[in-house]
DNA sequence: GCAAAAGTGTTTGGGTTACACCCATGC
DNA sequence: GCATGGGTGTAACCCAAACACTTTTGC
């Protein structure tokens, strides 16, 4: 990471983003290959410096857009990562974020100025990353596992319209265990967070499933009544 | 906060700690009154700067000891707080922590070098604090509410030996609703995390309750078997 | 005896679990 | 017809909720 605009950025603090996607039953993470610097040609999380007049939330959103073209997605801070030796060049603390994106909406991602490549990797197959990025990914994954059981955020990884089985497979992949189809259906439907559409699956070689969409408004109303999403 | 030792601390990053205690049925927080600087005579969270060769975890522990004399307690990072205008003097990001302490073990707390007073306040009665400290306290409280339902951390706020009713009152105070005594007993006992001691309450004007202690070792073993603390 | 909290018992009902089974569609 | 996934039905069981009731101790 080359420092530029000395006067307008904070030194010693950066942002790093764990960007999750879901594709063909597998949880994936978006990585970038650095174009230069001490980590040239190595894969890591997209990240960068913070301007002096923006919050870390704003910086994370900006960097996401700059580095990958992605915007307006679910984004939440993980925490600060601060081991003194985490960055070999100087003492830098990073604030980790994780994002959930509907992968289908973002085809043709382009690497930003400081990256030579940007690509999706299956989370289960990621090996070494630069600095402590592997560790940050692990923290992001644990956070996702925890959150998905308590808040209906899984929908951020699926297309607008999805089938109940797709949703179940998402839960199975993230949580790491198998579920019972009939029971999953009833459990999720009983919450009244999903609206069944008039539409059905197409081009499948079996009975077409009903498509559903998630209702954020309904969720808000339920929350106000003291509803508690639990899975 | 006066900056000293320019060469050995990180500028633009600080630590702030939300220290919770429990006393007579009320959740309390430890605050310090600043001895000088722009916030002289105002109450805020204990905090300070980070040395270049220590992690934020290490800094939080060190500051806790320096500012209040407290050490070896439950301490967990909340997250980074980074609004550009949160600190009026310069651009400073703070990493928030929260601690749970057995208040009885730490009587006679003494203010550190930069504080003129240190005192406990009922969380429900805290009003204005310096900078965004009120906000950080709120985030700490939400975190505590969430965690206490998922991990057996409540014991860190109670004496080594406690009664089941004390524990229930702790849950009621933190979660903000009343519970049923018989049902609470059975629920917590069925988890096998508590050991009944041969000892009983003393000097109470009613039937003396059995004292219990929490077993961290048992909890570890249960965790390994896939046990999931849920409240 | 009375107050106060400790501690036990019991009924009820909702919800999870486990699994059997029928439906629709493409090949 | 058969494979594949969509979708419904149901019995067993667990467990939380609600509340009645007994026990122990100090005054």
TrEMBL record, chains A, B:
Residues 12-143 form the Nudix hydrolase domain. It comes from Leeuwenhoekiella palythoae. It holds the Pfam family WHD_NrtR. This is NUDIX domain-containing protein.
């Amino acid at each position: 990471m080359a420092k530029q605009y000395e006067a307008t950025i904070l030194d010693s603090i950066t942002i790093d983003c764990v960007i999750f996607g879901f594709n063909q039953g597998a949880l994936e993470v978006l990585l970038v290959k650095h174009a230069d610097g001490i980590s040239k040609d190595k894969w890591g999380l997209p990240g960068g410096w913070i301007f002096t007049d923006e919050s870390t939330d704003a910086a994370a959103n900006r960097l996401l857009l700059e580095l990958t073209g992605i915007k307006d997605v679910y984004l939440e801070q993980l925490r600060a990562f601060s081991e003194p030796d985490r960055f070999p060049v100087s003492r830098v603390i990073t604030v980790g974020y994780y994002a959930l994106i509907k992968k289908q909406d973002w085809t043709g991602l382009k690497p930003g100025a400081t990256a030579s490549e940007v690509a999706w990797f299956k989370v289960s197959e990621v090996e070494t990353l630069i600095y402590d990025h592997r560790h940050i990914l692990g923290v992001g994954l644990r956070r996702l596992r925890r959150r998905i059981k308590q808040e209906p955020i899984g929908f951020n990884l699926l297309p607008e319209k999805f089938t109940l089985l797709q949703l179940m497979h998402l839960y199975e992949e993230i949580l790491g265990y198998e579920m019972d189809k009939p029971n999953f259906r009833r459990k999720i439907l009983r919450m009244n967070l999903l609206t069944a559409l008039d539409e059905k699956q197409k081009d499948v070689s079996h009975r077409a499933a009903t498509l559903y969409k998630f209702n954020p408004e309904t969720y808000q109303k339920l929350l106000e009544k003291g509803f508690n999403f639990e899975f």
